[in-house]
Design goal:
The complex is a heterodimer. Chain A is mostly helical. Helix content of chain A is 78%, strand content 1%. Chain A folds into 2 domains: 48 residues, no CATH class; 218 residues, MetI-like (MetI-like fold, Orthogonal Bundle), CATH 1.10.3720.10. Chain A contains 14 helices and 2 strands, in the order αααββααααααααααα. In chain A, strands 1-2 form a two-stranded antiparallel sheet. Chain B is built from 11 helices and no strands. In chain B, α6 packs across α8, α7 packs antiparallel against α8 and α8 runs antiparallel to α11. The longest helix of chain B has 34 residues. In chain B, 49% of the residues are buried.
Chain lengths: 299, 264
């Protein structure tokens, strides 16, 4: 070692890079180790801590965490019908929001790819990107203001001579808000999937005698599906875990705010940890189901 | 293959969806310009009063400082780890490569609240209180994939023959990396870093659980929501936050224009 370090730095560097060039496995290890170590230690480690914490209990008198392991929290989740109702309600909301976003995103993405000229297309792309990155919190809050009894929505309806809507603190307003906030997450992968379809496929379909409607159903739709599936991972997962828009917009309970309340005000971290295994299980099932559509490659 | 009618219908649908995306943003700006303490609609007249109030609010400024520190820290970690992972996944074929990709995506594919509670449980386990460090730990976890995606998108489109040429001309591995690979990757890395910064700067779901008593700007805003009559000032801060996140995102978009990888 001492002999090596006495050499001029350039020569050492040369030897080191030649060494790494010959030992590709070592190079791979050096590249892969830091990010994997971080994700395994911080992320998977934290998920493991979550599992442990879900087995702890809480002293009902002092509200301190009892570090003994039991399935008590999962028993509570199983026995109380509240948790089943809330889970069902949350999944239903996630499905509605995902479908709404797919229906809204598809024509926009299709227009961008197949109709719009180059400049309009670029402008629309940036136009979709911008709301995606503007503050989530503020978008949720703005919808609370929009649907308020004396807010802009009812004001506009009044101007048009239409009756007022009573959307404040309802699941409908939450549905609109979440669909709104997650919409760009759906548009971008659908756009990317449609954009990848070669024009020659459509010509070939036409040459083989398919009418436009049939080409759309048999060529475009199947090839766009991975994009929709990729977008749905985001819309589904983000809805399952949301607690801020939920707190701001509705009075109903969803998985997210049950976790939030138990971890915060109620001071029952073990129960919160147990509840948060529900969205994890749902997402794992969901990811396994849509994996076959090629969604991961379209992310 | 689309008929004229179909094109017009698509145009109308696209315009309506874009209007849906933008009208709420207009409401935020109009609200921030309303000088009254209680928001009424329509806004009677406009003033920049709340921008000045927000500008001089010391708690908001302190929160802004924390947010900038956190975003800088998380971005730095994400750039190093994300780039390194991108090279590994792009340049090598190895057992478990799919698993590596999955692990990178997992922090954004699983709900943020799960990450939040998981980190809180881990902190609890080690008796660690919330601090800027714990927030950075959490944010970096989901920022890595943003940098990774941008770097991989660029690597896929750059030809390996440049590097071979460089080596053939006598450059060593480091010189090739420094003078050939890195310049080709630089704009993608800057774009990834800008997106990671914007993502961290705006994050609240995970932050809420890992922050302890530290206040980031989104947490400050969230706390103001719980107080009565703070809304106009919050709106002013909101407009500021939106501008501050949108600028890096637009920059990133420009930098990645040819690669089309500036999304998550």
């Amino acid at each position: 070692m001492a002999a090596t370090s006495a050499q001029p730095p350039a020569a050492l560097r040369r030897r080191l890079s030649a060494f790494l060039y010959r030992h590709r496995r070592l190079k791979l290890t050096l590249l892969l180790l830091p990010p994997m170590a971080w994700l395994v230690v911080v992320y998977l480690g934290a998920l493991a801590a979550l599992l442990f914490a879900s087995l702890w209990g809480i002293n009902p008198y002092s509200f301190t965490i009892v570090h003994t392991y039991s399935l008590g929290n999962f028993r509570t989740l199983w026995d109380n019908s509240v948790y089943r109702t809330v889970t069902f309600q949350t999944v239903r909301m996630a499905v509605f929001v995902t479908l709404t976003d797919a229906v809204l995103a598809f024509p926009l993405a299709y227009f961008m790819v197949r109709v719009a000229g180059r400049r309009l297309r670029a402008a629309l792309f940036v136009g979709v990107l911008m709301p995606l990155w503007s503050s989530y919190l503020i978008k949720a809050y703005t919808w609370k203001l929009i649907v308020a009894t004396n807010g802009p929505l009812n004001w506009s309806l009044g101007k048009l001579g239409l009756p007022h809507l009573h959307l404040a603190f309802t699941n409908t307003s939450l549905w609109i808000t979440l669909s709104y906030i997650w919409l760009p997450y759906m548009v971008l992968p659908v756009f990317a999937a449609l954009d990848r379809i070669p024009g020659t496929y459509l010509e070939a379909s036409g040459d083989l005698g398919a009418r436009p409607g049939r080409t759309f159903r048999r060529v475009i739709l199947p090839l766009a599906l991975p994009g929709v599936a990729a977008g749905s991972i985001f819309t589904f997962s983000l809805t399952l875990g949301d607690y801020i828009a939920v707190t701001l917009l509705t009075k109903s309970q969803f998985i997210g705010n049950l976790i939030y309340v138990n971890a915060g005000v109620a001071g029952n971290l073990p129960l919160a940890a147990a509840i948060s295994t529900i969205p994890v299980v749902i997402m794992i099932v969901y990811l396994t189901l849509i994996r076959r559509t090629g969604a991961f490659e379209a992310l | 293959m689309e008929t004229r009618t179909v094109k017009i219908a698509l145009g109308v649908a696209a315009a309506l969806v874009m209007a849906f995306l933008y009208l709420p943003l207009v409401v935020i700006v109009l609200d921030a310009l309303n000088p009254a303490r209680i928001t009424g609609w329509p806004v009677p007249h406009y003033s920049t009063k709340w921008f000045s109030v927000a500008y001089h609010d010391s708690t908001a400024r302190a929160a802004l400082e924390v947010s900038l520190k956190v975003a800088a820290g998380a971005t730095a970690v994400a750039v190093v780890l994300g780039t390194s992972a991108a090279f590994a996944v792009h340049r090598f074929r190895f057992f478990g490569r799919q698993g590596v990709s999955l692990l990178l995506v997992l922090p954004i594919a699983l709900p943020g609240i799960v990450t939040g509670i998981a980190l809180l449980s881990a902190m609890n386990y080690f008796g660690q209180r919330g601090s800027i460090t714990t927030i950075v730990l959490g944010h970096a976890t989901f920022c890595i994939v943003v940098v990774f995606n941008n770097a991989v998108a660029r690597l896929r489109r750059t030809s390996g023959s440049f590097e071979e040429a460089s080596m053939d001309l006598g450059a060593d591995g480091w010189q090739t990396f420094r003078h050939v690979t890195l310049p080709g990757l630089a704009t993608a890395l800057v774009a990834g870093a800008l997106l990671a910064f914007a993502l961290s700067f705006d994050e609240i779901i995970v932050t809420y659980f890992t922050a302890g008593s530290v206040q980031t700007l989104p947490l400050w805003i969230f706390n103001q929501f719980q107080l009565p009559n703070q809304q106009p000032e919050v709106n002013a801060v909101a407009v500021f936050v939106i501008v501050l996140t949108v600028i890096p995102v637009l920059l990133a978009q420009r930098l990645m224009r040819d690669t089309g990888g500036a999304t998550r």
